[in-house]
Amino acid sequence: MQIEYANPGTVGLNAEVLAQMLCELEEKAELHSIVIVKDDKVVVDGSWAPYDREVPQMMHSLSKTGTSLCVGIAISEGKLSLDDKFVEYVKEDLPENYDRALDRVTVYDLLTMQAGSAACANNVYFTALKADWERTWLKEKRIAEDVGKAFHYDSGCSYTLSKIVSKVMGTTCINLLQERVFSKIGIGHVDWLYSPEGFNTGGWGMYLTARQIARLGQLFQHEGNWNGEQVIPAKWVQEMCLPRIAKPGCEHKVLNGYGYHFHTGEKLYAAEGAFEQLLICFREIPIVIGITAGTNHELVPDICQKYIYRALETQGEAADEGVLAEKVQSLQLPFASGDSPADAAEDKLFGRWLLLDQNPREIRRVRFDREGEQMIRIKFELADSTVKTAWAGYRRWLVNDLFADFTKRLHCLTYSFSEGVLAIVDCMINTSYREEYTFDFSGETVVCGWKPNVTYLNGNDNSKRVFKESTVTYHER
Q1: pTM summary value
Q2: What separation in angstroms does the CA of 66 have from each of 73, 77, 240, 276, 471?
Q3: 320 phi, psi to nearest 5 deg
Q4: Which of 245, 255, 365, 463 is most deeply buried (CB count within 10 A of its CB)?
């Protein structure tokens, strides 16, 4: 199945309504890329600069889709059953005094997040561990009365399923997906993070583009069949997207239930990752939407559903296709706050090393230098004494290839001045993260601020998370 592009009107969608959808989405959320497919034809394919449609982004919990697919493959081959007690597959990891409620947890319970988890073990929980991911998770206390009866979201369920699948299939989940799924549908190479024990993380850590997300959605809409080949058992695709349990507190949302690692609703089912990485499939109409993003706004699927149905209902009305094309071409995230490429007092800041207090990115010190009229050079030293150099442009994004690690390799920077404040925006385009750093040199000391679009760090209001108002302790030429 080749990728085909089409004007929305040719497949029964009102282009102006789709443009309105993009406007509301960027007004209420921060999207990084979006692909909309109708009748296997791409009608919207855009990204918000500097995010790039070709650069995979961390999927967070959308990765659970891959785990569910692998479970389905294992079940279809008789190597696993939904009714199996999962502890039978992880006996070597069971602590001596584990919570006996775990003995009742089945593979089905892990898939539907009904394992009685008292707390959610997310990627932060696991990546803080140097080893023994499974054993550590198995030590957690359970809510015995909730096993098999109540929804408790927990990525530990997904990691455990990843490990179980690897044991029964004799290969990792990503290898299984590459061979059985991705290579068949033209997705190509996909990265997925591993635990120290060599198993894919299961609940997060897959890297995809919006195009790849939408491609996967097309497979689901064709019930696992691709160009006449049954890539995934049709029965499993049908089963995984059915609502199994209600999600508490989501009664007002279009996705109010949960299936086999899928969020479910009356008209939609979706794989959803933190900060709104989304694979949205419509049940009644052949429409798929792939989204990458960096936002805490949780109603993106609701907005999509509203406008897609509106675009269908008004398909017969005259619509200017150029409005949508122009909107897609103009997609861009805000530049650094400020209105000047230079500042009369910037010498107070430039040409010297600034030693920073403790900060979330573990930057020990930083140095700014002018390089051209509308570009600055930034040197920064990390906690491990590594020194990196990056460039930022005034009202333009400069791409910096800074790290060998693909998870944080590309950084796009822009800067601006405003009344004694240097603002720098860093879009880490392999991730959901966009951060604005400010260096206020209007006083006797330089005050550094940090404002992320989204974060896993503690607290609820990102706008107040500013290095605890740290001050630079000294200047050094």
Answers
A1: 0.95
A2: 11, 17, 12, 17, 45
A3: -85, 105
A4: 255
